[in-house]
């Protein structure tokens, strides 16, 4: 009996311990589950004037746990509406995302907007991996992939702002959100709701307004690229490139004014020059139109600035690299219409025979090498029998839209007259191989008779008839 009572007491004791243990485990589990969710609230406040839009402050928050994240009361530069004199109004858009980075540069997770679309305040939800007490960097736009570190993320944004922006249509702001970088910091707590975080812009909106140039013509076709250079005192300045699409000819909206929005990094440009170069599909590597202004203030992060200038067609002088130093294809040796038009000579040369002896081609123009070139190209088998003319034709490119030819006698004489200026220009070419104009005989495309053609001696500029054997060939083209 005594032994049976002891067994019952032991069983009751075991059940009591088991029940208390279960209660402890349930309480622990409840606390653990409550720590799996967190709420991040972003509060960003912006205001706009006709020239500026105030910066948005940033706050960063982090924690090394898995959690559900949401945001509300967010103000940001996400979807942009241009309100003309009232500035640009930003709101959150559907599917907007933010990424949280840990202090070691790796990602804690990416959150997606859940409420507040179309307003300046929004709530974001998602799962992150962070620890209580961690400080996370909150970034917009979101990282492109989960392996992207914070340093790579920042580098990609900077590169994109510099040369990957594309504006589709006049005055469009849709492209801005991709490079509208914002950051903030938030401290990861133990609860599911984190403190409000104010995101601050790390870049600036620069709006350029350009009335239609008086010399914009139908041949210019569609706008191509706007290059803006901030002459901040550095060697080459700070260069931004904005691709323009979706416009046929010069835009007729906004009073025939092209309005381009460009996201830039903050820069101190007070009393310094800003250069503009606008290209078209007619000469898509040529800086067709240009202009400049002097800035009156420093361009701060999170603000909008507007510049207005009237672009004019770029003009050239003899000896200028064409179309520009970064994409040189020739050097200007003759100009007309104040430098808006002219002729260029190729950067290089070759030495070949003019053509077969005892063969009349009727390429006899002394002034128009393009006509002579066309006459020769019409001859069957000219590629083999007239290698100098073929060499000139092979320089033709859809990229430059220049039509190269062997210059006529008078064109070659005109080239010799500016030989020194052309050689000075050639010596400045850094991106392409070039050959200085020498002192030998250069062929013209002007035929004298069946066995002779005109050439110019570049030691003295004298034009003479030479047997159609080997001499130097240089190509020219009109722009």
Report what the structure shows.
The chain has 479 residues and is of the alpha+beta class. The chain has three domains: 41-141 and 180-201, no CATH class; 204-313, Sandwich (Immunoglobulin-like), CATH 2.60.40.2630; 321-478, no CATH class. The protein contains eight helices and 31 strands. Strands 7-6-5-9-11-13 form a six-stranded antiparallel β-sheet, with no helix packed on it. Strands 10-16-15-18-19-21 form a six-stranded mixed β-sheet. β23 (330-336) and β24 form a beta hairpin. It is elongated. The chain starts with a helix and ends with a strand. Residues 1-11 and 24-78 have low confidence and may be disordered.
Write a compact overview of the structure shown:
The protein is α+β, with helices and mostly antiparallel strands.
Tell me the layout of helices and strands.
Elements: H1 2-34, E1 41-42, E2 66-68, E3 79-82, E4 88-91, E5 97-101, E6 107-115, E7 123-125, E8 127-129, E9 135-140, H2 150-163, E10 165-168, E11 182-187, E12 196-197, E13 200-201, E14 204-211, E15 223-230, E16 238-245, H3 253-256, E17 257-264, E18 273-280, E19 289-294, E20 304-308, E21 312-313, E22 321-322, E23 330-336, E24 341-346, E25 350-353, H4 369-377, H5 382-385, H6 387-393, E26 404-405, H7 409-417, H8 419-426, E27 441-447, E28 452-457, E29 462-467, E30 470-473, E31 476-478
Parallel strand pairs: 1-12, 10-16, 14-20
Antiparallel strand pairs: 2-8, 3-4, 5-6, 5-9, 6-7, 9-11, 11-13, 14-17, 15-16, 15-18, 18-19, 19-21, 22-23, 23-24, 24-31, 25-30, 26-31, 27-28, 28-29
């Amino acid at each position: 009996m005594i032994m049976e009572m002891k067994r019952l007491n032991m069983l009751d004791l075991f059940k009591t311990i088991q029940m208390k243990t279960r209660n402890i485990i349930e309480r622990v589990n409840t606390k653990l589950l409550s720590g799996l969710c967190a709420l991040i609230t972003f509060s960003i406040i912006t205001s706009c004037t006709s020239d500026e839009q105030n910066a948005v402050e940033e706050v960063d928050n982090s924690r090394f746990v898995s959690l559900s994240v949401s945001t509300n009361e967010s103000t940001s530069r996400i979807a942009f509406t241009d309100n003309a004199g009232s500035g640009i109004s930003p709101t959150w858009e559907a599917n907007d995302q933010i990424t949280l980075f840990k202090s070691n540069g790796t990602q804690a997770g990416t959150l997606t907007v859940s409420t507040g679309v179309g307003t300046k305040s929004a709530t974001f939800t998602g799962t992150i991996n962070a620890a209580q007490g961690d400080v996370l960097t909150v970034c917009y736009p979101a990282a492109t992939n989960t392996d992207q570190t914070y340093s790579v993320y920042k580098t990609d944004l900077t590169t994109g702002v510099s040369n990957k922006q594309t504006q589709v249509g006049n005055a469009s702001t849709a492209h801005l959100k991709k490079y509208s970088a914002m950051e903030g910091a938030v401290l990861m707590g133990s609860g599911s709701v984190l403190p409000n975080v104010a995101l601050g812009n790390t870049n600036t909106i620069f709006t350029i307004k350009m009335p239609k140039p008086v010399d914009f013509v139908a041949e210019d076709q569609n706008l191509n690229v706007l290059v803006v250079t901030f002459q901040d005192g550095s060697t080459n300045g700070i260069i931004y490139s904005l691709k323009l699409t979706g416009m046929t000819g010069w835009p007729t909206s906004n009073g025939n004014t092209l309005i381009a929005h460009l996201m830039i990094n903050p820069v101190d440009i007070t009393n310094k020059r800003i250069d503009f170069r606008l290209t078209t599909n007619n000469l898509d590597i040529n800086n067709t139109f240009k202009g400049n202004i002097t800035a009156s203030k420093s361009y701060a992060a999170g603000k909008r600035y507007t510049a207005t200038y009237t672009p004019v067609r770029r003009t050239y002088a003899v000896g200028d690299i064409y179309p520009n130093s970064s994409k040189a294809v020739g050097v200007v040796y003759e100009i007309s219409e104040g430098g808006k038009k002219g002729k260029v000579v190729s950067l290089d040369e070759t030495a070949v025979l003019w053509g077969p002896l005892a063969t009349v081609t009727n390429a006899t123009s002394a002034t128009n090498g393009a006509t002579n070139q066309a006459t020769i190209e019409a001859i069957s088998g000219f590629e083999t029998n007239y290698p100098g003319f073929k060499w000139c034709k092979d320089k033709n490119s859809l990229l430059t839209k220049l039509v190269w030819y062997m210059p006529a006698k008078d064109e070659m004489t005109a080239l010799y007259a500016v030989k020194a200026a052309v050689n000075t220009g050639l010596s400045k070419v850094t991106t392409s191989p070039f050959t200085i104009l020498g002192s030998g005989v250069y062929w013209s495309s002007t035929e004298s008779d069946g066995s002779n053609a005109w050439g110019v001696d570049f030691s003295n500029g004298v034009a003479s008839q030479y047997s159609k054997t080997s001499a130097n060939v240089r190509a020219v083209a009109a722009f």
